[in-house]
């Protein structure tokens, strides 16, 4: 028996949604091999990052080794509460919250040479003193905000040669 035949023989359910075809494979296990949570899924949440999804059709395969009822699977779109951006000087920065939410807090904003990524941004060796207040003034209380990132917008009146490559960056982490 080929792999395709074996997989088809184990299929419990195929769910079609707008963007994802969900194939759940339930292995036929003997009850005497089950020690805990018999008949329940081995995992409660399956997180599928948006970056993994194509704009057209997608197929997601879940292999459920212990058993469980695949009819209880449902999809949920989760709205992000934390949004981040990192752009170089001269670029247009745009932030927006989903689901009608507004930007309530700027957790991090640094114009200079910030380091890290969303969730772990930190100040670099140099930054403009007006970074946080400039972003807060432009974005707090709005569902979206945007502006061109320039040294003048952040009160920098001298050369940016202090920045490693001479190009300043703005990193932001905000809460919706």
UniProtKB/TrEMBL annotation:
Protein name as it appears in the record: SUEL-type lectin domain-containing protein
Alphabetized Pfam families for the sequence: SUEL_Lectin
UniProt xrefs under Gene3D superfamilies: 2.60.120.740
Record keywords: Signal
Start and end residues of each SUEL-type lectin domain: 87-176
GO function term, MF aspect, one: beta-galactosidase activity
Signal peptide: 1-19
InterPro entries found in the cross-reference section: Galactose-bd-like_sf (IPR008979), Glycoside_Hdrlase_35 (IPR001944), Lectin_gal-bd_dom (IPR000922), Lectin_gal-bd_sf (IPR043159)
